[in-house]
Amino acid sequence: MNVDGSGIQLFGLLGVGLMVNLVAALWAIGTAMFLRTEQAGAVIQMPVFVIVFLAPVYVPLNLLTGWIHAVAKYNPATVVLEAGRGLLTRHR
Known about the structure:
Layout: H1 7-35, H2 40-53, H3 67-73, H4 76-89
Helix pairs in contact: 1-2, 1-4
């Protein structure tokens, strides 16, 4: 992969990362405040793990085949990952 992103695109990538961290933090805080127990850790971590596990983390979406392509196509994390790749490679 050729990294062709400019400084502005690097800040865009940083903004995307901060938004994802904010969403994950709000999810964790909301779940922890609702359940108010230490056992909430699994409830907080499991959906995030499943979303990341079923996203095209290591390869672009168009290289996936089979059922994982069908699932990754509707996964909300796919949009974030593809946006990050697009900001780095100037891929539209």
